[in-house]
TrEMBL record:
Organism: Oleoguttula mirabilis
Pfam assignment, any one: CoA_binding_2
InterPro entries in UniProt: CoA-bd, NAD(P)-bd_dom_sf
Alphabetical list of SUPFAM superfamilies matching this protein: NAD(P)-binding Rossmann-fold domains (SSF51735)
Protein name as annotated: CoA-binding domain-containing protein
Length: 161
């Protein structure tokens, strides 16, 4: 399994962004794309659902307009991308995110193989979170639902629940 020299540092970089795009965001409450998008909203972070197959995502009876791809983000240089998609989709998203100038990426468990994680670590140096590197609190690997609060705190962001 791939590792990064310092995932905790990368997670701090990730949470230093102004905005967070969630690739794979969903209205389906059973899906992790819904749970992770809701996590950002619950923490009062500026979050954008990224999903090319629907125009809106609903969380807690509120609709949020989606963006179809990283290239359509309004301010990619100040945006971190949380990825909850199958590995082949993740590979394409990472290429688009890199080209668009996205600041940092967090590959959620199940969204990558070694190939996608290695690409992210290489193309987003010091700003790619994922895998099983030291610092994760969960058995599934680095996941914002498990590791996000500590990473936010490490980045100096106040939790605003």
């Amino acid at each position: 399994m791939s590792t990064s020299p310092d995932m905790q540092s990368a997670a701090r970089v990730f949470f230093s962004s102004r905005t967070f795009a969630v690739a794979g965001a969903s209205s389906d409450t059973a899906k992790f794309g819904h749970k992770i998008f809701a996590w950002y909203l619950n923490h009062n972070l500026a979050a954008i659902p990224l999903n090319p197959t629907c125009s809106t995502v609903t969380v807690r009876r509120k609709e949020y307009e989606t963006v179809p791809s990283p290239s359509k983000l309004s301010d990619p240089k100040h945006t971190s991308l949380s990825v909850i998609t199958p590995p082949p989709v993740t590979a394409q998203l990472l290429r688009e995110a890199k080209q668009a100038g996205v600041k940092a990426v967090w590959l959620q468990p199940g969204s990558f193989t070694d190939k996608e994680l290695d690409y992210a670590i290489k193309e987003f140096p010091g700003a790619a979170v994922g895998g099983f590197a030291e610092g994760t609190r969960g058995g599934e690997g680095w996941c914002v639902l498990v590791d996000g609060d500590a990473a936010m705190s490490g980045a100096g962001r106040e939790e605003k629940l």
